[in-house]
Design brief:
By secondary structure, the chain is mainly α. It is built from 7 helices and 2 strands, in the order ααααββααα. The longest helix has 26 residues.
């Protein structure tokens, strides 16, 4: 759906939730994942590379790098040594956090290039880092950082939006 959302955002934004699926029903993407926040990177890459597949692969790879980098920054901010923060960041990037049918949290490292849903978790460390920064210093810049992180997380996936709300609420309690 990345390509459909990208095309509709650039040609007819009113149709972004009406991809050509389940015809004649309309707004089918309203109940599915739209990955809106990934358009920030995907659209320019698609225009630059001229290939949807190359843009998708580079978007996924970049998401891993960013998730690892932000997680390392977060761990360093929480007091971990640079080595622990670096290793923690490298381990978090390619991890898929998903709930199994029995309700338990399952963490698994993917061996192959995953579906884009598996990289949507990259915004969770951004939100936690935003909460940490805002707790340390209440400035407009830190509030804007948290607002941006929350917006990107909410627009990445419905599943990640709910998970982000739960994790941010728990993090905010402590």
């Amino acid at each position: 759906f990345l390509d459909w959302v990208g095309d509709s955002l650039t040609s007819d934004p009113s149709q972004v939730f009406s991809p050509p699926i389940n015809w004649p029903a309309i707004n089918q993407l309203a109940g599915s994942e739209h990955f809106g926040s990934f358009q920030v990177l995907y659209l320019p890459l698609r225009a630059l590379l001229g290939s949807e597949l190359a843009a998708l692969n580079l978007t996924v790879f970049s998401a891993y790098v960013v998730a690892s980098w932000v997680t390392a920054i977060l761990l360093g901010r929480l007091g971990c040594s640079p080595l622990v923060a670096w290793v923690g960041g490298l381990l978090y990037g390619p991890i898929d956090a998903s709930f199994r049918v029995n309700g338990g949290l399952a963490l698994k490292v993917e061996q192959a290039l995953p579906h884009i849903m598996q990289i949507a978790h990259l915004f969770i460390p951004w939100v936690i880092l935003g909460l940490v920064r805002l707790r340390e210093r209440r400035t407009l810049g830190n509030a804007a950082f948290l607002a941006l992180a929350l917006t990107l997380a909410f627009l990445s996936s419905y599943y990640i939006a709910v998970l982000t709300i739960l994790l941010a609420s728990l993090w905010g309690l402590f």
